[in-house]
């Protein structure tokens, strides 16, 4: 347990001061000192992430989804960078109009959400922030997803206002639009953190510009009472688009080849389950790391606008260029594997949610849950009590929800066969993301819970795969 902690504000900046040794209670919100590895990763991502996205999408557009051919052709002088750039579609008014309409469509309900009926969700409370605040959130994502998809199908089958291939047909011009928004929002929240932060006591300034820009300064930037940047960008335009993008790819396959392959159907169905799950359980999402612990900067702002819609949908894009018809047995096996992955993912998340909501007064796998009692201090000096579940899936490994997610992610990739590496980017990326998350989260939990976290890791010794890691 740390010593006494005081908090003060300095020119709009908030600092946490801890007296005494031990983990810095109240600083558990985010890395306080930026080590060289974090800084190098931040600079690498800021410099290269936009090019990585461009490289993948351009490889499909100009090199039939081969990731090696662009590099080989450039190296051997068959093409120049200028040739590639000249063949890249530029920003168009059409793409700008589509994207602006899309964003406004989602902002309106969030701004006027008080006046909309709720199907599931409504007003929900988030977790305690490091400064001791509990924010309220208007949960209406399921409505947004259902209405958008109903309109999509109504257009495709009844009204024919636009072609269902519209997203695929404007994919690169739309990339420029998503980048403009991604950078604009990241810059806006950076400036906002200095000039008019929503809650100054939850801001963290590391003193390193690149780190602050990327990982964010404000914890929960808001405009007015209800427009919450983190919930909006994490959970609206990008993630709702995910399933529409896949539908657009399926429509393109139909247009090009006169049929939709079973692999495309599998990708559409499995990813739709994942997305729909997100919206069905949106209130649960308020208790995940993205909302509870990450600050809002380029990582979430640009990531949600660009990285998510472009790189999470690579399997569908690949299948437009390389339609794969799987033998029925393989397709059924992959479906079953995908459902098992989803079951593990959902049940693990559900067990923690149920356990925390009922404060342990529930049954996990038909028995009273086992747990470790913990306490922590928020920056306002209040002591809070909580519990760490050690039975059910949480007794198998400390992040078994990630294991389920990884199984599902692998299945998306396997539907594309083994001819190219491009569709496997997702499982490689998810493995890096989730392993890094394990480490990042455990670091934070260790400084939040101190010796009780050590007791927990002794009780549940593995992170993802029992006996392995
Ligand atoms: P978790 O939902 O696992 O949340 C971790 C937090 O849960 C910890 O910080 C701690 O918070 C609490 N916790 C940890 N262990 C226990 C325990 N034994 N009992 C009770 N509470 C515990 O992590 P994420 O938010 O990262 O992930 C949520 C889901 O989202 C996962 O299934 C993941 O796979 C998925 N995901 C998907 C991504 C994608 O891009 N597709 C990206 C990231 C996540 P506290 O401080 O409250 O104790």
UniProtKB/TrEMBL annotation:
Enzyme class name: oxidoreductase
PROSITE patterns: STEROL_REDUCT_1, STEROL_REDUCT_2
Main location as per UniProt: endoplasmic reticulum
Biased composition (Polar residues): 15-27
Renumbered residue ranges of the record's region Disordered: 1-27
InterPro entries, per the entry: ERG24_DHCR-like (IPR001171), Sterol_reductase_CS (IPR018083)
E.C. number(s) listed in UniProt: 1.3.1.21
GO molecular function terms listed in the Swiss-Prot or TrEMBL record: 7-dehydrocholesterol reductase activity
Pathway: Steroid biosynthesis; cholesterol biosynthesis
Catalytic activity entry: cholesterol + NADP(+) = 7-dehydrocholesterol + NADPH + H(+); 7-dehydrodesmosterol + NADPH + H(+) = desmosterol + NADP(+)
Record keywords: Cholesterol biosynthesis, Cholesterol metabolism, Endoplasmic reticulum, Lipid biosynthesis, Lipid metabolism, Membrane, NADP, Oxidoreductase, Steroid biosynthesis, Steroid metabolism, Sterol biosynthesis, Sterol metabolism, Transmembrane, Transmembrane helix
Membrane spanning residue stretches: 36-57, 91-108, 142-162, 174-195, 324-345
Domain of life: Eukaryota
Membrane topology: Multi-pass membrane protein
CC terms in the record's Gene Ontology section: endoplasmic reticulum membrane
GO BP, one annotated term: brassinosteroid biosynthetic process
Cited Pfam families: ERG4_ERG24
Subcellular location: Endoplasmic reticulum membrane
Job description of the protein: Catalyzes the last step of the cholesterol synthesis pathway, which transforms cholesta-5,7-dien-3beta-ol (7-dehydrocholesterol,7-DHC) into cholesterol by reducing the C7-C8 double bond of its sterol core. Can also metabolize cholesta-5,7,24-trien-3beta-ol (7-dehydrodemosterol, 7-DHD) to desmosterol, which is then metabolized by the Delta(24)-sterol reductase (DHCR24) to cholesterol.
Family as reported in the entry's similarity comment: Belongs to the ERG4/ERG24 family.
Protein name per its UniProtKB record: 7-dehydrocholesterol reductase
Lineage summary: Eukaryota, Metazoa, Chordata, Craniata, Vertebrata
């Amino acid at each position: 347990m740390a010593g006494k902690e005081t908090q003060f504000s300095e020119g709009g900046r908030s600092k946490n001061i801890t007296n005494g040794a031990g983990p810095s209670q109240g600083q558990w919100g985010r890395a306080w000192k930026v080590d060289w590895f974090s800084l190098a990763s931040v600079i690498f991502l800021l410099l290269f992430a936009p090019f990585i996205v461009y490289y993948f999408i351009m490889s499909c557009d100009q090199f039939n989804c081969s990731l090696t051919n662009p590099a080989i052709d450039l190296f051997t002088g068959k093409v120049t960078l200028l040739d590639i750039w000249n063949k890249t579609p530029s920003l168009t008014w059409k793409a700008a109009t589509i994207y602006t309409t899309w964003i406004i469509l989602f902002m309106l309900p969030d701004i006027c959400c008080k006046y909309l009926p709720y199907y599931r969700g409504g007003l929900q409370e988030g977790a305690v922030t490091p400064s001791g605040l509990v924010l309220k959130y208007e949960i209406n994502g399921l409505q947004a997803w259902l209405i958008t998809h109903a309109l999509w199908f109504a257009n495709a089958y009844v009204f024919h206002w636009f072609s269902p291939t519209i997203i695929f047909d404007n994919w690169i011009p739309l990339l420029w639009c998503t980048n403009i928004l991604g950078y604009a929002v990241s810059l806006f929240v950076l400036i906002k953190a200095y000039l008019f932060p929503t809650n100054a006591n939850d801001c963290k300034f590391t003193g390193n510009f690149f780190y602050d820009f990327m990982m964010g300064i404000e914890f929960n930037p808001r405009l007015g009472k209800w427009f919450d940047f983190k919930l909006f960008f994490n959970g609206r335009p990008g993630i709702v688009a995910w399933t529409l993008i896949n539908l657009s790819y399926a429509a393109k396959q139909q247009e090009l080849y006169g049929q939709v392959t079973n692999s495309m159907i599998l990708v559409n169905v499995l990813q739709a389950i994942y997305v729909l799950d997100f919206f069905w359980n949106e209130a649960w999402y308020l208790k995940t790391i993205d909302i509870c612990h990450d600050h809002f900067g380029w990582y979430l702002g640009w990531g949600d606008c660009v990285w998510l819609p472009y790189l999470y949908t690579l399997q569908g894009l690949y299948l437009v260029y390389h339609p794969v018809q799987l033998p029925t047995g393989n397709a059924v096996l992959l479906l079953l594997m995908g459902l098992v992955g989803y079951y593990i993912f959902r049940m693990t998340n559900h067990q923690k949610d149920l356990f925390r909501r009922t404060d342990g007064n529930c049954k996990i796998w038909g028995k009273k849950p086992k747990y470790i009692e913990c306490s922590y201090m928020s920056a306002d000096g209040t002591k809070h009590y909580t519990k760490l579940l050690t039975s059910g899936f949480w007794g198998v490994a400390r992040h078994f929800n990630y294991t389920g997610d990884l199984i599902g992610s692998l299945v998306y990739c396997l539907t594309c066969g083994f001819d190219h590496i491009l569709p496997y980017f997702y499982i490689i990326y998810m493995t890096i993301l989730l392993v890094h998350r394990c480490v990042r989260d455990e670091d934070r939990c260790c400084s939040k819970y101190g010796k009780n976290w050590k007791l927990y890791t002794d009780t549940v010794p593995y992170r993802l795969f029992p006996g392995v890691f």
